[in-house]
């Protein structure tokens, strides 16, 4: 899987992203990514940029969700 993860610099508030919650294994096939709008961007980590969504969920961005 060669998904291009964005960097924290590329993210902005209101962008819709797919994240994996911090307490889940980012590399697990069983992990259900969550989709939501970025509220706060923290920092880049090896697991992807750490963000808090507007609904309060904190996790690592896996990809940006583009509007169809």
Automatic annotation (TrEMBL):
Pfam families found in the cross-reference section: DUF2196
Phylogenetic lineage: Archaea, Methanobacteriati, Methanobacteriota, Stenosarchaea group, Halobacteria
Lineage top rank: taxon: Archaea
Name of protein: DUF2196 domain-containing protein
Organism: Natronococcus occultus SP4
